[in-house]
Design brief:
This protein has about 425 residues and is mainly alpha-helical. It is built from 17 helices and two strands. The chain has helices at about 5-30, 35-50, 70-90, 100-105, 110-130, 130-135, 140-165, 170-200, 220-225, 250-265, 270-280, 285-310, 315-335, 340-360, 365-370, 380-410, 410-420, and strands spanning about 230-235, 245. A two-stranded antiparallel sheet has the order 1-2.
């Protein structure tokens, strides 16, 4: 397998892992009346303030807010959350990747979009965490080493974003857009290639992915476990005779990488942690899941509050709007995946990722011209950005319309499937 292909498989596993966490946390909120009541109590004053158009009260410092505010901005945040939720629920991957690009496409500054997305992830993690169900398999030593690294990484990534913004807001927006364009472009084109192969019958297509998949210990993991830099951390004693060992330095370094990515891109870090533990460190999936949940809460909380919120780079009303929209979207998407063909799901995964790529890539020419790094007529760069923005929202609208059409068309059968006689329910093993 070539190196680019390995990177693609890593990123794909990353997006699936993050979607799995998002799905479980969202379902935990939806199925708990107390959590829903808390959410409504938090949402009520935000809606009132939104209607009164007094955004500065909730939107952080006025200087860092979008160039304008109206109830429409709040509704757009719900639409963004809804779209991300639909992608996560139905496709089982990729939804979290479009939130920051979508906020930027709606007119929110890049640094504010990152901070707001991180705060949205942190709020969801605190409200709907299922960590108490998974703590039995957490390696405390692995978690501590990783969190020390990720904590340090959030300071590096957050400081870099703020430094670029202080130099020139255009430089900050361009940097964030470039990172997303590279990531989404690479992931999207490989996903499209996989989809085209599936259409020809070369690869089998499956339904929505709400689980993790991995093979045995990789060669890279074996090499890293052989690095003898004390202190060495033992792990997986319950799954492997004698357990395994890995250097604290290796784990902390991996955590630092996750923390930097999380605080630069606004994705919480969970999208990288799972495949890093399984494929790079060679940790069992059972141990990884609990550690991943702890990492998301810690990294997203530290990055959103310490690196962004205290500097005014969090738009709280948008974060709550995305949370509400994503809860609805994930539920509808998860139900609809039962009546959607796997090949269609794979195709929409590729298209949604590529839409985010086109949107961010189309903004780069204008930003490079404004930064005097490129010489092009402003009319051309403005048109390129306009087309990229329109294409992005068209894809989001088509996907949303198609999903809801499938949902309502099959509502009867979905209801029947949800009603299972007690005698047919098998006891948990």
């Amino acid at each position: 397998m070539s190196v680019p292909r390995q990177v693609y498989e890593f990123l794909k596993a990353s997006s699936i892992a993050h979607a799995q966490w998002d799905y479980e946390v969202s379902m935990s909120i939806i199925k708990n009346r107390k959590k829903l009541l808390v959410l409504l109590l938090l949402l009520a004053p935000i809606l009132l303030v939104s209607l009164l158009e007094a955004a500065p009260l909730l939107g952080g410092k006025e200087a860092y807010a979008p160039s304008f505010y109206s109830p429409m901005i709040f509704l757009v945040s719900m639409v963004i959350g809804l779209a991300a939720g639909l992608i996560t629920g139905c496709i089982g991957a990729g939804g979290g990747f479009i939130v920051t690009p979508a906020l930027m496409a709606a007119g929110v500054k890049g640094i504010l979009a990152v901070g707001t997305d991180l705060f949205h992830i942190f709020a969801k993690a605190i409200m709907g965490t299922t960590v108490h169900k998974k703590l039995g398999n957490v390696s405390l030593k692995l978690a501590i080493a990783f969190l020390i690294g990720s904590g340090a990484g959030t300071f590096v990534g957050g400081a870099l974003n703020r430094m670029l913004y202080n130099i020139d807001p255009l430089l900050s927006d361009g940097f964030i857009s470039l990172i997303y364009a590279l990531l989404l472009g690479f992931l999207g084109f490989y996903a499209l290639f996989d989809f085209l192969k599936s259409r020809k019958g070369i690869a089998a297509a499956t339904g929505g992915a709400h689980g993790y998949a991995h093979s045995g210990t990789t060669d890279l993991a074996i090499k890293l476990q052989s690095v003898n830099i004390p202190p060495m951390i033992p792990f997986d004693e319950d799954f492997v005779p004698g357990g395994k060992r890995i250097s604290w330095v290796v784990i902390a370094t991996g955590g630092a990488v996750v923390g930097i990515l999380a605080s630069i891109m606004g994705v919480g870090g969970g999208f990288v942690t799972f495949p890093m533990f399984v494929y790079v460190f060679g940790v069992s999936s059972m141990t990884t899941v609990g550690t991943d949940i702890l990492q998301i809460i810690f990294t997203a909380g530290l990055a959103s509050i310490v690196q962004y919120a205290i500097y005014g780079y969090v738009f709280y009303s948008l974060a709550m709007g995305m949370l509400v929209g994503s809860l609805l979207g994930i539920q509808v998407g998860a139900l609809t995946t039962k009546v959607v063909k796997g090949i269609h799901i794979r195709g929409f995964y590729a298209v949604s990722i590529l839409a985010g790529f086109v949107n961010r890539a189309s903004t780069l020419p204008r930003k490079m011209v404004e930064l005097e790094l490129l010489s092009l007529p402003k009319s051309i760069t403005a048109n390129i950005e306009f087309v990229g923005n329109i294409l992005f929202w068209i894809v989001v609208a088509i996907f949303g319309f198609w999903m809801f059409a499938k949902f309502f068309a099959n509502l009867g059968s979905l209801r029947e499937e949800a009603i299972v006689p007690e005698s047919s329910v098998k006891p948990a093993v």
